[in-house]
């Protein structure tokens, strides 16, 4: 742990403008309107489903906020159980990961929507003993962005966020046309090992992880492309965006755009694949997240 | 990022600024906001105010959170079988859902555990002074407030603190409203208000008259129908008894699907009447009076069992009570019945004994405040009442948005005093506004709001507050 914390993540050169923008943003978030009338959500509540939650808790309770990791499409809670959960617990943070419905060990849900996924996240977060930090990876970051509108998280971290739109699809098509085309027609999205992991990861590990990948529901995949923008986050949580400039799913420009949306610049970890939590150098990003949380991004709240 | 784990008291750092009229020091709590009551509305006020960066001191006369929903509290009106009458999505706080594997209509004990979890999840207890009741709340210069407290029950010295703002969340379902009847004092049977009804054992084997057709009255009549040797149920008028489930779904969810489709009120009323005619049927067959109003014009009654037990002959519907004799009760149709126990499920009245009624715009001292959005007080921009609504859905969602609106208003008083002043002007201009269609005029409907009308009004207020 000690060695990896020495390597500081490279910060994007364009971050010099982040400070004043973040102040503007503060005003900006306030003027964004929360939606109070939620007639359809009340009239058609999301059905309950068995949810897999994996967790690791520190040996000594230090009063740190719990972390809830949300995997992206195709991934399950196992992706975080591999390294990050144990590592976060080792640094004193109770850490949990949920499998979205239809993924990992959660109950099947072929017709799930993004709303159902966000519902799963909010349900698990609200069930934790204290106000949680939501950490979303890949399309899980979009799920977290939606969940933030329904749950006042302590803070949020978007790891290699896939926030949707046609840009996402075009990038994926260019990088991996054969794996992406079926998904556009409602089929399964197949991400290749070279998209997910760097070459540093031993081939056997990469093969093992790739074999566990599942698929997201068809409607949720389409909503990733065409769905509505997430509503503004409630409770004004601080948001950290991080990723890799060599990610072959999320281009660096998309990272910058995502970070700008939340008034900051992304933390970058060059040389890593899309799956930062499974790649060979998984320690660096998770340490950066925990360092950020330890610095107390939101001192106003006790 | 550390969480305060000490369960200690609010920070006592404050300085003496002034003396009260009887010469005690007033401690200045600076920008801190005072919340009165740690029930559902008080808790969400604490949570939203501290989320918006305010310090909060909450005073709670009991020793636990949950207010009316904490059956341990002596003012709690819940009885053993109390279940929600609005389904889960309408009842939970909008940013802290109840577990989705809970029933559609949870039991009151589940609701209490929900509030306790809410308090723990957002670490609210550190703001609350338990076992402390508020004696007086007085305005002082600069729109600030002197709040005088003491230990519940009147022990110990009084203590006065000065706050930047006050949220009154003392509830409106704890002070029983008892009607007066001729001869009631001479009646030799037992009399109780529904607030002291806790358990069906209190009814077992007795001849029981239940007065009132609110949701509580109907619940008690159903239990009396099963437990008592005889049950009469007296109502002022005919009502629409809505089943908890229609068309296979919780009734309020069906209604809101129509609301989401923006179906006009008249059409919804027609559909509602049609649904009730097809499912519940014509109630005059059982001797119940025909309703003298359309649905949505009185507070909805969600009870699937009342009509069922009337059909079993276990409940005898009777008209209004006119007077009491020592061993009998006379009804509006001249009949006399001989109950041993009379349960008055006649509702509650709000009480703000720590506030001058004039402050809440109740000049005639009738007990009915004149407010905007049932929350904001004309002439007192730093005072708000939370949860003083009786919606056709759950209260807590409404309290949550009231608290958010108040917190944003308090923040704007610092950053944009002009907008806060415009808001205050609107409060004065629109005080007393209603948020429902026409309703029957009775104390029961003083605070009646349609949840859609009300929340849309709050949404507009929030938008006007922040975009002008």
UniProtKB/TrEMBL annotation, chain B:
Keywords: FAD, Flavoprotein, NADP, Oxidoreductase. Residues 1-12, 19-30 have a biased composition (Basic and acidic residues). InterPro entries: FAD/NAD-bd_sf, Flavin_mOase, Flavin_mOase-like, FMO-like. Residues 1-30 are annotated as: Disordered. SUPFAM superfamilies: FAD/NAD(P)-binding domain. It comes from the Bacteria. Pfam families: FMO-like (PF00743). Belongs to the FAD-binding monooxygenase family. This is NAD(P)-binding domain-containing protein.
